[in-house]
TrEMBL record:
Transmembrane segments: 132-150, 162-185, 217-235, 241-262
Domain VOC: 4-114
Protein name in the entry: Glyoxalase-like domain protein
Entry-linked Gene3D superfamilies: 2,3-Dihydroxybiphenyl 1,2-Dioxygenase, domain 1 (3.10.180.10)
Top-level division of the source organism's lineage: Bacteria
Keywords for this protein: Membrane, Transmembrane, Transmembrane helix
Natural source organism: Gimesia algae
Xref: SUPFAM superfamilies: Glyoxalase/Bleomycin resistance protein/Dihydroxybiphenyl dioxygenase
PROSITE patterns attached to this UniProt entry: VOC (PS51819)
Length: 284
């Protein structure tokens, strides 16, 4: 696990169904109740306490992701199918298949075979945290761009205006190339993940081992500041408007460049498989 946890608590709609699901991976739970508290299940797994609690009234299910490296007596795929656990997708890490399934509450669970001991990892949903950071970035951008006024440029030399437009054009042309070069360089970084996953808004934006997630967050950070500049354009004039539009276009170009990275380095991307009801798989 990238982060050592001492306690992991999952709140479930049906703790009995969740217990049966997670015990399939070799986790043995014990039924507990502390005083007048709710009945729950607890287990010790890889040095941490793993607990299953019932959901509180009106509480939504969290959208975290978990992973387990398990050591079962039978083939992992056959074991999942025999247990009635549907495989949503799969990819490979170091030539070992990783199966993506869902627990009874809809959490994504990644499962792979391990020799000889089992292990696990946990990744929370970063959507809310990222949203707060982007809102703060837009607010900070709106305040910082108030320092740029249109008046001095309107009265400045024509050459300065042309140079400003030229610099803006050059940044548009070279920004995607720079993103592809910087992110692509990480393919030879021995400390990066052997396989990268497609970035989403729920992934950890500070996970250095997956540069796609970092770059994905930075592009939205730039666009958030550009949106703040558009707000201050009401007070500052055309310069803030131009800079805001430029930053938003730059962020969109950066996202497009990330798509180029994923196409340019397919060996680093986790191949996805669609699993049909019949059990056949087809690769994207």
């Amino acid at each position: 696990m990238d982060l050592k946890l001492n306690l992991l608590v999952l709140r479930c709609r049906d703790i009995e169904a969740s217990r049966v699901f997670y015990e399939h991976f070799g986790i043995v739970f014990e039924r507990e109740q502390h005083g007048s508290g709710p009945v729950h299940y607890a287990a010790v797994f890889e040095g941490m306490v793993f607990e299953l609690y019932p959901l509180k009234e009106g509480e939504p299910v969290d959208r975290c992701r978990l992973g387990f490296a398990v050591n079962l007596d039978t083939d992992l795929r056959e074991s999942l199918e025999d247990a009635g656990i549907a495989i949503i997708s799969q990819y490979e890490i170091e030539q070992e298949p990783v199966f993506v399934v869902e627990d009874p509450d809809g959490r994504k669970i990644e499962v792979r075979h391990s020799e000889p001991l089992g292990s696990g990892w946990y990744e929370g949903d970063w959507t809310r945290f990222r949203s707060v950071i982007l809102i703060l970035a837009a607010f900070a951008g709106s305040l910082s761009f108030l320092n740029y006024q249109s008046g001095p440029m309107n009265g400045g030399p024509v050459l300065d205006v042309y140079f400003f437009y030229f610099a803006l054009l050059v940044s548009f042309l070279f920004w995607p190339i720079m993103v592809v070069a910087v992110v692509g360089f990480q393919t030879i970084n021995p400390y990066s993940d052997p396989v990268w996953t497609r970035p989403t808004h729920s992934c950890n934006p500070f996970r250095l081992k997956n540069p796609l997630c970092i770059a994905h967050f930075l592009m939205y950070f730039v666009m958030a500041q550009g949106a703040g500049a558009l707000v201050t354009a009401i007070l500052g004039g055309w310069l803030q408007l131009l800079m805001g539009i430029g930053m938003i276009i730059g962020g969109l170009e950066g996202l497009w460049a990330l798509e180029l990275v994923m196409k340019r380095y397919p060996e680093k991307m986790a191949p996805q498989y669609h699993v049909e009801i019949s059990g056949n798989t087809s690769q994207d």
